[in-house]
Every structure is written in structure tokens, then in C-alpha cells.
């Protein structure tokens, strides 16, 4: 796995590079601003870019803009975005055109090495990894939506895990239920949310996130 890291905090950038190299991963370049990120992507053609949301010069959304541009320049590039805070608008903006090969995590997850590496590998393989705290805040913003009220507590747990990007087997392991039970819950969730069911993990996560964003905008 070839990795480019874009983070303006030099200490975090180099610490992240050391962590990944210690795990046997190939960090081919690091960047301190969006221009350096795009140049590194063009030069090294990485498998995945790890990108900070807030970068110079304004420290607002430069990382998101650069990530979108990097994927335009290199179609199929996986991107894992890191943020110090939950920024729902940036998460949904990044995922607006589909969730395959995309992740959005809080920086605190980096310290939980196994979780972080699992998310990194999942995104690099074309999957999705959404921070549980982002999912929780999206749920909190959509409490007034009648369709969510149709879900049972267990279905809410399954939906939250789906939105994080977990597959059926991982959801089953987390909730200590069978994969068959998870599949039944998923079919029920899609029916209650008026969404067409599908077994394709990337499409189902996209559908869930689009639904949550729509509900957030209407809240």
C-alpha cells in the first residue's frame, strides 16, 4: 500500500508516517499544504491519501477541496480524511458523489492503532470508514424525522454500524448476533426508510448517508 500524508502539523505528520512505516506500510511522501499534496499524488500515484481537513492558507476546508481534486486527477484514489472535530458538512460534502474508497475519522482515532489501521485498510480496499462520533451526531440531528422513529433500537445500532462502513460479518461480531439476523435487520431498515435494499456495502452506506444528510437539511 502506497500512502501520501497531507497534514500541516509537522509533529503529527511525521508521527503518523513513523507509525505507518513501523507497520510495514509504504509512506511515499508527506505534504504540509494542498499544493504539496496534489504534487505528491501526481508524482507518486499512491493507493491512498491521508488528508487533514483544515490546511493552509485559511485552515477551513482546504483539505476537503484538495481531496476532491486529487480524486479527480487520479480516479480511484482512496482518501482518508482526518479532522480534530466533527464537521458534518465536510463529511457529507466529501461523500456526496459516493462513498467507495473514502473515510472520515477524528484524529483521536489515530491513537487507537488497531482501529485506525483497520479503517485505513478498509478504505484502501475500496470500502468506507466513517467515525462513529460523526454518525452519532448525524443521528442526533435527525431525531425529528418520522422515518427514523420507525426503527427499533437494534435496527438503529445496525444502521449506525452500516454508516461507519462495517460489513455484515463485522456488524454481527460487534452486536453478538448472527449474520442472518443482521441481514434481516438490514432488509427491515431499508424498508422502513423507503430505500431499496442491496447487498453491496458501498452502495448501502451511500444510501444511508444520503438519507441522513437529506434529513439533516430538512431538520
From TrEMBL:
InterPro entries associated with the record: CheY-like_superfamily, NreC/VraR/RcsB-like_REC, Sig_transdc_resp-reg_C-effctor, Sig_transdc_resp-reg_receiver, Tscrpt_reg_LuxR_C, WalR-like
Keywords for this protein: DNA-binding, Phosphoprotein, Transcription, Transcription regulation
Start and end residues of each HTH luxR-type domain: 144-215
Signal peptide positions on this chain: none
Matches recorded under Pfam families: GerE, Response_reg
Domain Response regulatory: 2-122
Keyword DNA-binding included in the entry's annotation: yes
Residues modified to 4-aspartylphosphate: 52
Gene3D superfamilies from the UniProt entry: 3.40.50.2300
Coiled coil: none
Protein name (database record): Response regulator transcription factor
Organism: Cellulomonas chengniuliangii
